Please model this.
Amino acid sequence: MYMECDDGSLDSSVVTADSTGLWSTTMTVPAGTACDFYAYAEDAVGNVSPVSNTVSTQACDPVDDYEDSTSLGDSCADAIEDWTALPDDGTTVTITGNIIDASDEDWYLFDTLQSVTTAGYNVYNFQVSLTAGAADYSFAVYRGSCSTSALECGTSEGSGWTDYSYYAEDVGDGDHTPPGSGNYCADGSWYNDCDDLSSVYYVHVWRTSAIDSCAYYQLQVSNGG
Model:
């Protein structure tokens, strides 16, 4: 049995078949490589068979900022929170993750802050986007807790989303655009809602494609700006 990998790795193994012709062997595929496997047979007197068909495979070297053996981030109760509360000044957190096991999932927790509206307008705008991996991953957002009633944009996660935002909408004009310097906090149908929108958010990420590739995801989370 022979193994040839795209990083130049080579390996071989000599195995003796049993009386029924069955045999097996184990080879370690270097992480992050694609390898080809092939074999040939040789009988007791030295006759050699043609080379077998080639079988190819790859071994993922997971690109993952937080993957470890402690199950951190594998449930809402163990959601990863490796950052301080996000102020509404455009602060951005970028996370790279990878889900290899079909039963795996990633959970993140974000606390957010809304500044005092001394400038006269509300710039709070919590945003989550999949900037890489949208073809293989999706996410859902829970605002305030992990309960079903806290799920944003529906009553079930379904197929999830690749973009999400929660901001102070204009009231009365039907425009519903993100806040800007012209959207002042005051009484009137054309002004922003200036309630304090500070909250915690739970972001649940899962793989939507089959577990047959090394595809990773990149999650960008921000507030304001």
In short: The chain has no helices and eleven strands. The chain has two domains: 1-59, 76-224.
